[in-house]
């Protein structure tokens, strides 16, 4: 099989005079990867349970989010990813030393002309220990079910190149054992949080200081996922992540840096950057007439792949985020620096603008 392009934009090709240009266009319609990698989001904080199951209940009493990503539309048939996440604390008021939390998340990722689709649903459970008024340490585990499917009729390979052009009547040379593969999956993680507004002593307005740092392991069971029934297994994935919110006293500004590192088999991803958050309005505690509002702008860099411009608008309990990846990898000659658009929606409780 001709494996040519993965979601990070790395690809291989061969040249044979002018015919190679035509062949390249055809082969971009066949976006398989020799080493499968999990989907990723530029707004990684808006999809917490795909990053670490221990994040269930770590930051809010309740959190729900929806994500949509459209990538590589300028190069080939696009990769489209939809994801959703919900988590909540279960007994925060009953246990002074800690609390349980649960979460549910899913994602569906469809790639290219072959409509290579991966759909997964996960259940997460976590327990968070209160170290003191401001610090918690949590551990979480995740179990899920996944299915991969492929449209056999959309397969295009180099075997269908007749020496001059592409001929759909020629055999692809591919004999798949099945057009659908099902498997069970798992994950686990740890997370530490600091929030100077979570204790009995409340700070004055715009003196917020929050930190989150965690590590996670996914696919420890290394499930078999190949359509060829050849025993190929999904690589384990190791994740380290962190972010912060640091307010600048006597201003309406805050710095919101963050990073994400992932290692999965021979592939790795380092993603880091920062937002600048400007608080437009503080929630009125008693009248409810004013709704807390903040606008964040910034950028993140995915090493060797893209720069993502990010905008986040928060309004009371709600938030909407928009990002766009500007591709700067070796694929830019075909993508013309265009990468992916991502839109996210989020609801959290309690209201983050209340002290």
What brief labels describe this structure?
single chain, 355 residues, mainly beta, Porin, 14-stranded antiparallel barrel, globular, disordered N terminus
CATH topology: Porin
| Name of the CATH architecture | Beta Barrel
CATH C-level label: Mainly Beta
Q: Kindly state the number of beta strands.
A: 14
> Could you state the CATH homologous superfamily?
monomeric porin ompg
Which consecutive residue ranges, at least 5 long each, have pLDDT under 50?
Answer: 1-35, 200-204
| Helix content bin | under 10%
For the record, the count of structural domains works out to: 1
Strand order of the largest sheet: 1-2-3-4-5-6-7-8-9-10-11-12-13-14
Query: How would a crystallographer describe the biggest sheet?
Result: 14 strands, antiparallel, barrel
Account of the protein in words:
This protein is mainly beta. It has helices at about 20-25, 330-335, and strands at about 60-70, 80-90, 100-110, 115-130, 135-150, 180-195, 210-220, 235-245, 255-265, 265-280, 295-300, 305-315, 320-325, 340-350. It has a 14-stranded antiparallel beta barrel. The longest helix has 9 residues, at about 20-25. Residues about 1-35 and about 200-205 have low confidence and may be disordered.
